[in-house]
Here is the input.
Amino acid sequence: MSPEIIFALRLKSNLASTCAHWGLLERKAGNLPLALSKLQQGIALDEELARDEPGNQQWQDYVAPNYYFISDILEHLNRPQDALPYYQKSFDVRRALAFRGLGPPKAQKEFAEAAKLLGDHSTGLAQIDAYRAAMQTWKRLIEDEDKVVSARLAAEQFDVILGFARVFRAEKDWPDAQTAYRLAQKVADMNHDKDPLDTSWRDQAKAADRASLEAKNAAKAALTDAKAR
Here is the structure.
């Protein structure tokens, strides 16, 4: 790559960073329309950089948090429909960062969080797909060989994963509900191992185990009904 091209890329990156920083300052000051405008300018430049150098994930790393900031601003401006595409963009770029060569735990954690946010602001199948992606990512992290990292990341995820299970159950998505309840049980067991004196985790694990069995039985019953038709 020629020095001229490198200089142009750095110049565009610096301008993108300046716009994003300006936007965040305006957001903090409560000037949401101006914050939105500046962040969108910064994102447009970062997206150009990502297209110019598709193999350089640094540009995706720079733009990823700003998708969240824009969606949050749009929510506060009472524009949820405009926010949804930015939740989707956050999901897409976080997924690319997390699973390009199986990214580090931190990148996978950030993808799981972006997936949950997308699901929280979606409905129907789109919500189920987003929650499923988040759940499978947490499952991958929790079952990782590096138990120190996975335990730390999983420590506060019980309520999140249990929430996924309840959504799957409400939609009669029994296989995903069973997986989520089983995963919640594993998180509760991990937290109980971390703090054996806190017996509430043991109780939570037992409750999740019972719910997992109920989902398993419901899945079998649904399959039997389907075959009988």
